[in-house]
Amino acid sequence: MSEIKKGKYMFGTVKVGERGQIVIPKEARDIFNIKAGDELLVFGDKEKGIAIAKMDLMKELVLKVLEGFGDFE
Asked: Residue 2: in which H helix or E strand, if any?
C-alpha cells in the first residue's frame, strides 16, 4: 500500500477468481473499516472504471439529500 496523496491510496493489484470474486486487501479493509458481512455498492463507468463504497455511508448520503428536499419549498 502506498499513500499517493493525503487520504488517497493505491493498494496494489488483486486477481479475479473463477467466480468473479476479488479479495479486498487487508490494508484497505482496515482503513475503510470493512468487515465480513458488510454490504458494498459497486459503481461502474466504462471510461473511468469501477468504484466500491460501503452501503452504510451511501445510506447516510441519501438521507442527507432527501432531508434537503424540504428546504426548496
From this structure: strand 2-5
